[in-house]
Amino acid sequence: MYTKVEKLKRYQYERYAILCRDAYPVQFDHRQYGFSEHGRRDIRNRWGKTIIRVLWKEDGDVVVVFKGSHSLWDWALNLAVFPSRVDAPYYAGHVHWGFQFLLKQPSRAIPQNRKRHASNLTTAQQADIIHSIENSQVDGVSVIEKLESCILPLIERGKRLSFTGHSSGGSMAVIAAEIIEQKYPNTVKRVVTFGQPATGYWTFKDKYRLKSKTYRICCDVDIVTFLPGLPFLFWHVGELLWLHNDRIHHNMPSIVRIIRVLVSWLLRPIAYHFMDKYIRRKDYFDKH
């Protein structure tokens, strides 16, 4: 039997992490990550800014990348902690209102000012703008509806979906994966999130269908992973993979994580005296 970490191969982890990191810049060339030239669809929020990217290879599966908070409006939504019933065909409990609103908000077409000023950009930037215009959305359709319309032809071709996202994008990925899995059973291959806040209430944790396929990755004492900060009200789903002190810890309770980090900080001056610290620095001599 393989462990969950062994199933989530290192190259897959690095791939998702890089895609989440590179989702934030406006310019994004999906081809440099090995995706097909026409294997991309951008989905925009109510302000016309990209919030989701759907990427695929012609001979491979689909990766759906959710962008985290990147505006004051997004951060304000993090405070909207009252319950919202998951907008899925079958009952799936209740989640953070703000995170579900990000999916239910209208998806706008590319802003007109970006079209007007495209001639002042570099060739690569113009290509990105043209690609975005070709795949722009019709006003009045929600983000989740646009996502469904993008992935349905791919599902019909037998492709499976991997969802990934950073911060609130991770919460969006979890909610969207539940909705899509209900509508199109067995199409979600895995969900991988980074620095994700708790997404739903106990009812959502209890009903969530992808527990065994969801990996929630956090580093050390990333404060966002403890938000919204309401114990026994909001709950995480899936398996926690906590990266701390060069190890991967499974499903470590929050209070234990905090204590271990505090102890690590207090003992750090002593720990740097150990020989393994010196041995790890051997590469320094090759660089100088």
Explain this structure to me?
This protein is an alpha/beta fold. The protein has one domain (4-254): Alpha/Beta hydrolase fold, catalytic domain (Rossmann fold, 3-Layer(aba) Sandwich). Helix content is 39%, strand content 19%. It contains 12 helices and 12 strands. Strand 2 and strand 3 form a beta hairpin. It is globular and about 60 Å long. The termini are far apart. The model has no long low-confidence stretch (mean pLDDT 83).
Structural key phrases:
12 helices, AB_hydrolase_fold, 288 residues, Fungal_lipase-type, Rossmann fold, 39% helix, Lipase, Sec_MonoDiacylglyc_Lipase
Overall structural class, as computed from helix and strand content, comes to alpha/beta
Number of domains: 1
Through-space gap between termini? 45 Å
CATH architecture tag: 3-Layer(aba) Sandwich
Q: Would you report the number of β strands?
A: 12
Number of helices: 12
At the first level of CATH, the class is Alpha Beta
In which range does the helix fraction lie?
25-40%
Q: Average pLDDT across residues?
A: 83
Order of helices and strands: HHEEEHEEHEHHEHEHEHEEEHHH
Output the radius of gyration: 20 Å
Shape: globular
User: Going across the major beta sheet, what is the strand order?
Assistant: 1-2-3-8-9-10-11-12
